[in-house]
Design brief:
10 strands; three-stranded antiparallel β-sheet; alpha/beta; seven-stranded mixed β-sheet; 7 helices
């Protein structure tokens, strides 16, 4: 699955970046033990973070409760443990501005997620989906590469006390059928920075065409610089209504989609 090229820093002009800088804290040494002690289906995170790029924890404040603590790897120069030189998946180990922006938007605009079934595609570290789970949704967090799935599952386990088991993790190959049971109707799809290439734009449209029915809402946020917005809309089924949401000066392009009633 194609991801955007890594950036060495977050934009200093973004308000989301300012929040990021205030709330992130470096964490030396091994990853903390998750509150849910059972091993994950994808295994423990196996990447080796060098001393110059230790794992970091982003603290996302929630109303009237303890914050979500989402671990990321913010080092761009490490190598996978198998010696591979393919680092494309490492972008899924980073919390990007658009994820912070969408998570804040869902909370600040009081988008109803409690009691909803939420699918996050290209979840990466899982911030947006875990915010939805902490707010009372049943969430399936999905990605594709094993190191990303390991970190995603780790973060779900580490925040178990906030979502009480309502967040699960699954591998999702966008070229294949979605990993959903027949009775798992999706109420809400969330995704950030998933239309960062022409190929991904077409695949994300394919995913939405397959998983969305007439009551499914879709919220996407993609940073303008990496957006293949037009290619995405061309591949999207014409039954979708597309609404671009004002982004309050943020850098991300935030859109809402929903199929029109027949």
């Amino acid at each position: 699955m194609i991801r955007r090229p890594p950036r060495s820093t977050l934009s200093s002009s973004s308000a989301a970046s300012d929040v990021y800088k205030r709330q992130i804290r470096s964490m030396a040494g091994p990853l903390p033990a998750p509150s849910a002690s059972s091993p994950g289906q994808f295994g423990e995170p196996t990447l080796h973070w060098p001393a110059s790029g230790a794992p970091q924890v982003y603290r996302f404040e929630l109303p009237d409760r303890e914050p979500l603590c989402v671990t990321q790897n913010h080092s761009k120069g490490h190598r996978p443990p198998d010696g591979s030189t393919d680092l494309s998946f490492t972008n899924g180990l980073v919390i990007w501005d658009s994820a912070i922006q969408l998570a804040r938007f869902l909370l600040d605009r009081h988008v109803t997620v409690k009691g909803q079934r939420v699918l996050e595609i290209g979840a990466g570290a899982g911030l947006v989906g875990l915010v939805c789970a902490a707010e009372g949704a049943t969430v399936m967090l999905t990605d594709y590469e094993l190191p990303v799935l390991q970190l995603l599952e780790y973060n779900a386990r580490a925040n178990h006390s906030l979502h009480d088991g309502r967040a699960s993790v699954a591998r999702y190959d966008w070229n294949a059928a979605p990993p959903l049971d027949a009775d798992w109707d999706v109420d809400l799809v969330v995704a950030t920075d998933v239309i960062a290439s022409a190929t991904n734009a077409q695949l994300v449209a394919k995913v939405l065409n397959e998983v969305c029915n007439e009551h499914t809402e879709v919220w996407l946020c993609n940073e303008e610089f990496w957006s293949y917005h037009e290619e995405f809309l061309e591949a999207l089924d014409p039954s979708f209504a597309v609404e671009e949401i004002a982004s309050d000066g943020e850098t991300g392009r935030l859109i809402k989609l929903q199929r029109r009633m027949c």
